[in-house]
Amino acid sequence: MSDKKEREPEIVGFACSYCSFKASEMAGSLRMKYPENVRVIQVPCSSRVDPAFVIKAIFEGADGVFVSSCHPGDCHFIRGNYYTRRKMAALKEMFKAFSMDGKVKLFWISAAEARKFIEKITNMYNELREEKNAGKKN
Amino acid sequence: MRIGIFICHCGHNIKSTVDIDKIKEFFTGSINITSVLDYPFLCSEPGQALIKNSIKNDKLERVVIAACTKSLHQDMFKSLVRNAGLNPFLLRRIGIREHCSWVGDDIEKNTVKAIKLIKAGIYSLAHYESLEEKLVEVNKSVLILGGGISGMSAAIFLARSGMEVYIAEKENELGGHLRHIKEIWPVRKQGREIIDKMKMTLKELKNVNIFTSSRLISFCGSFGNYQATLETPEGEKKITIGGLIVAIGFSPFDPSTKPELQYGIDKRIITTLDFENNMNISFKEGDRVAILHCIGSRDDSIGKTYCSRVCCINAIKTANYIKSQNKNTYVESFYMDVRSHPRGGEEFYEDTQEKGVFFTRANISEIIPEKTGVILRGEDTLLGMPFEREFDLVILSIGLSYPEDGHEIANLLKITLDKDGFFLEAHPKLRPYDTALKGIFIAGSCSGPKDMEESINHGRASAVKLYGLLNLGYTFVEPFIANVDTKRCSGCRVCEQVCVAKAINFDGNLHIVRVEEAACMGCGLCNATCPSSAISLKGYFDSFITDEISGLLEIA
Known about the structure:
heterodimer, A: alpha/beta, Ribose 5-phosphate Isomerase B, Chain: A, B: alpha/beta, Rossmann fold, FAD/NAD(P)-binding domain, 5-stranded parallel beta sheet, 15 helices
């Protein structure tokens, strides 16, 4: 196999309408750059994210999935993101059995934190890219 | 199904980094896609007409608008679709500007991303169903955060128009920074005089409630019915308001963050604000005064690249004042560029030069306090020559920094800040007073440096816009509420336990749960929790999201 071209990971993200999706919009209007393979789905609250959606995305070929919500205590729906935190922790535990826990991430990003949004997803992208091209180094 | 796709060029904003012809080519002729059209500006009148005509002529059943992000122009596009005879909830907006063309540089990759985003949108849209918005009454009351000149101007207008007005000011007195200004250019009035006049007006109005030494501690709800909690000296106060204006102003730049300025170490180095506070400084003959422009503005090293707009005229005013106190003083102003932008500013600058104030274009690199005087070391940028001069007094013309508690307020209200820490408007040209949240407006210098006149204008404009929204008396609430499929519900009551809004009640007779529509907030937590998939959130069904995931990951 002489496929030297670097493989790029695909990332799907779920962002809540009130905080993280706003941050992603703001990152856009501030012309910040992030990899094209990161695509965001808007959900009303991070608690709307059924763990099944995360599994489905990985089944369909995503290399990484992130769920992004308001900071703890700042949820527009009062306690929604606490439920998300528990669900994601449980999901991560399950993924650990297959050494896949690096594929799932939970971020806390408020509407004002466009820079943090970019940092987090770029870091995640770089980590996954390294993993995806690990066998090609030699 | 008949789906119409409309792609906006947004001038060059989308077109320059996304190949629109390729997108059109990809979707034209696909199954269920009736028409694929593009236009330079879909939000313009001809653009709107294009969508409307296409919906009518092509008998579209679903509409995809790939343009700016969902929070911009949503009301306009919704009413457009409604006027064309289609349910507005059969419209799908795709943000190929904020989520694609502006965040990537590679045209090829961007085009693939745009195609995937649109495809995912269509997959999701196929499941959409008609919904009706709910009409609710709005509270004709407003909370104004910050009792500065901008907030007070807004309060006076709103109170006179019959709205119930609440003002929350964190200091123990209304007035903001203007209280400390001894002389306002060009009206030659004291700041206090103007503030006292406005305070009197507010006092006479019966529907104004002023809370001083108070701050906002919690905020929730939606337009027309926001619930805010204020922390006042008399304890917590809960109020229900229709809308809110953020007018928390600015924080003056603190020069001690730049140690080379020696501010706070030597008494002979003061800021323009200190100078205003001690206007009784007397000047002897031969006193040497230096005024430094652009302290805390246009300075990359401290991350403030913007121009603070008001400090040039402040510096000129100070120089002029010193010269008029004693014309035998030596006043030299060190500037980067003089931007005396308000009306009459340029003439005032010339007049000050004629009075004998020297203006030197220079970069000051060091300030060295000595016994005999303060030595300024720097470079004359016009001559390209280094210089060293001694002064008796150095006045720093400080700029405007972002408000100290801006981040806290932004997090509470869930509105955004720009890169400099000021509040971000919904659109810099078309909606300079609005935030992305309906009913929340910004006013005054919390949205960027402004002088007094601009702050008053901004405050009044925000007040007028908010009045326009509230005076209507009603608003529509998005009908995204949970719905129970009674056939599937097993009555396990898990959703009842998790529901934060307590909107789910158990019906013991039928052994199923029911949703109380008025209480449902629409978070979808119950939907994600239900083990039998019996409860689902309208507008965000499982199928919408799972198919969107498929669309995003399908190989194009």
